[in-house]
Design a protein that fits this description.
It is built from nine helices and 13 strands. By secondary structure, the protein is an alpha/beta fold. It has two domains: about 200 residues, Rossmann fold; about 100 residues, UDP-galactose 4-epimerase, domain 1 (Alpha-Beta Complex). The strands form four sheets. A seven-stranded parallel beta sheet has the order 3-2-1-4-5-6-11, sandwiched between helices. Helix 4 links the parallel strand 5 and strand 6. The protein is globular and about 55 Å long.
Length: about 325
């Protein structure tokens, strides 16, 4: 039986990853300090003998006894509002936390997988984004704490691969949505859903012409699992290449909720990327992966989840 450590395992993506690894027959040790994660996301796993939880801040030395086969580093604040409110913690978990998680992988001779991000491309001048694009990041802007921490995380991951021979993987995660997102994490999709369900104004930032490409969580987790068990050590984009404007997303959510909300326009946050779309040729070629949950399907499942959270069912 293989054992996997998932840092940030009680967060949105981390918890879905714990589920998938357990389904794959692994023993899973979830480490989280619950800063932005939530025990509710992993509650259903507590009765499972193959699951354990350690409350710990991974910017400090990580001690886990016994054999470990995989270390997946998913701990980090991850929404623009989170890293505006938690800038130092964001920098620390991306730098010190990645160092500690890599140290654990090296000690245990485990495969290491880093949750990186499309934010390494910043406000991109190349579109769609391919993995060989180096990005356009403002290091001193409000998003710099996340972008630069993840860029550092990629650099130290490659250094551990090259100099210590650790078998490392880097996934660059594009916008993802689904159940267990926090309703108030400030991201467009939960914000629009909660506003639409409550018939409150839906707040589009800027003129809404900026684009994003939204991937349903099960597709993303599948891509990550394939990368984990692959031989690939260079970064791989995982995301859904279907690109839409934020206006379009607001309209779609207003329609599926039958909402009476008005769409209102607010100031665009500093350094908000104007476009974002993954080029997934590498994921297709190397991992034989493509997303297959349609937005219509994914939005419906997510909406049901938020209705339940808001007690509207
Ligand atoms: N956005 C918006 N209204 C909101 C929250 C976000 O219009 O209430 C915009 C945001 O400015 C960005 C896009 O939606 O252009 C996606 O933002 P999100 O916070 O989901 O993540 P990002 O892709 O910027 O990391």
């Amino acid at each position: 039986m293989k054992t996997a450590v998932v840092t940030g395992g009680s967060g949105f993506l981390g918890s879905h990853l714990c589920d998938r690894l357990i389904e794959e027959g692994m023993r899973v040790i979830c480490i989280d300090n619950l800063l932005t994660g939530n025990i509710r996301n992993i509650e259903h796993l507590f009765g499972n003998e193959n699951f354990s939880f350690i409350k710990h801040d991974v910017t400090n030395f990580i001690h886990v006894p016994g054999k470990i086969d995989y270390v997946l580093h998913f701990a980090s604040p991850a929404s623009p509002i989170d890293y505006l409110q938690l800038p130092i913690q964001t920098l620390k978990v991306g730098s010190l936390g990645t160092h500690k998680a890599l140290g654990l992988a090296k000690e245990k001779n485990a495969v290491f997988l880093l949750a990186s991000t499309s934010e390494v491309y910043g406000d991109p001048e190349i579109h769609p984004q391919r993995e060989d694009y180096w990005g356009n990041v403002n290091p001193i802007g409000p998003r710099g704490v996340y972008d630069e921490a993840k860029r550092f995380a990629e650099a130290i991951t490659m250094a551990y691969h090259r100099y210590h021979g650790v078998d490392t993987k880097i996934v660059r995660i594009f916008n993802t949505y689904g159940p267990r997102m926090r309703l108030n994490d400030g991201r467009a999709l939960p914000a629009f859903m909660s506003q639409a369900l409550k018939n409150e104004d839906m707040t589009v930032f800027g003129d809404g012409s900026q684009t994003r490409s939204f991937c349903y969580v099960s597709d993303l987790i599948d891509g990550i699992f394939r990368l984990l068990i692959s031989d690939e050590n260079n970064p791989v984009n995982i995301g859904n290449p279907e690109e839409i404007t934020i206006n379009q997303m607001a309209e779609e959510i207003k329609n599926i909720t039958d909402s009476r909300s008005r769409i209102v326009y607010k100031e665009l946050p500093v350094d908000d990327p104007k476009v974002r779309q993954p080029d997934i040729s590498r994921a297709k070629a190397l991992l034989d992966w493509t997303p297959n949950v349609s937005r219509q399907e994914g939005l419906k499942i997510t909406l049901d989840y938020f209705k339940e959270i808001l007690d509207l069912k």
